[in-house]
Amino acid sequence: MEMPLQSSNYNPSRETLGRYSEYSLHSSYKIRAGDAASTNSVACTTRIPYATLIAALLCCTGIGVFCFTMYRGVTLSALMMDQVFHLYIGWLETVKTILVLIAAGMGALTLMIIFVGFLATGATRRRIYKAWRNRVGGRISCAVFMGIIYILQFFWIFVFGLLIVSTFILTVFWKMCVSTQVQDYHQCIDLTQFNFLFPQSTRIEYLKICEIREIKFFCRDFVEKSEFMFMMATFGVILILISLVHYLMCLSANYAHIRDHEKFEELQELQLLQDTDFATSKERF
């Protein structure tokens, strides 16, 4: 007849042994229903890559704000060029298509990084990356995504610089619109000093806005709205840059976890053997 282990100061119980080993190795050891539920809930929460999800939330928010505000700003720019300066700039329509492609590309990249994060987190990592080939593939995937994110950082820093310059120019235009000469004395808005910002085919007389209707359209319908749109787009790019930094940190941590997974397994096995030997030696006395 099998005698159960008794809990005492010198004899470890089955619960003590169960903490350091799989309960499947001890067929007579049973887990209570409440303990099993809590264990399953803890196991599920440890498989979620919270840092990667936070970075994905920041990235999606930044991409959404940037693409929406830039699409609106480009549309206003096309209307302003057509109705105020009598110019048609065809590449503005291409910019709209590029914005849609940027949103789709960043969204796909976010989904792939989240997938890699789930594979490299918690018990999922211990199950997926047991084999040597799987660990090599995981490390290569993390390294490839780190390279892509690093390149994207330079791209978004360049976009951030362009938005800063554009927002500054629109702020200067708005200061001209709300100046005393224009508001009280109804003087013309002279943009000839900014002729280098316009295409060479722009006629000089179109750079002087004198009619009240054109002043209203230029100031209220374009400059005021576009300045806000470009400010929000700049804020969206800041969120994107922060999320890219978070992605780099998460991918670096995942790379290290996958690389050192075999060492962690060996340490756990050594700890299990030491604890088992310690419990056996205590039973002798």
TrEMBL record:
Coiled coil spans: none
Gene Ontology cellular-component annotations: plasma membrane
Q: Keyword Transmembrane, does the record have it? A: yes
Keyword line: Membrane, Transmembrane, Transmembrane helix
Which named protein is this? Neuronal membrane glycoprotein M6-b
Question: Which InterPro entries does the annotation name?
Answer: Myelin_PLP
| GO annotation terms (biological process) | neuron projection development
Q: Name one Pfam family in it.
A: Myelin_PLP
Segments passing through the bilayer:
50-71, 98-121, 142-174, 228-249
Q: Does the keyword Transmembrane apply?
A: yes
Q: Which domain of life is it from?
A: Eukaryota
| Originating organism | Macrosiphum euphorbiae (potato aphid)
